[in-house]
Amino acid sequence: MASASSSALSISSSSTRVDAKAPRQTTAASPQCVTLPTLPPPPVQSQSRPWKTTAYCRKIARNVMAMATGEAPAEVATAEMPEIVKTIRDAWDKVEDKYAVSSLAVAGIVALWGSIGLISAIDRLPLVPGLLELVGIGYSGWFAYKNLFFEPDREALVQKIRDTYKEITGSS
Fold it and tell me: What's the pLDDT score for residue 170?
């Protein structure tokens, strides 16, 4: 028994002998370890930036000189704003109470964010999403049966939609 525990194991692919009581070799000394060469240090930003900074300053100086003389800079003269930007700018200029509109926009974004969080929290509950899906399918089936299957019901639905549209838009 004692001789069996002290016997050495040999690995056929290597000439190294492994002893159960011997300490392990570090991976750096092992012949199977591959080391990669180190990367060179990244270039210092200050070496490549002086010419970029100088070019940018020259561009700004040209634009300032062009504006001072009354002519438009080359970049501004050739670039046109998209139609939607013009429309938004005109609508914003017409607004009298910009503070209230900005507050409403921020409140809308916060409400949208909160409702997305609420919906994702409900979606994580185990049985609720499936139950809500069944309710939606059932209501869609009931609505289709009640309003879309028969011609008089379809006509009544279309007339109700037209009346609602006229009430909202105020047209006669």
Answer: 83
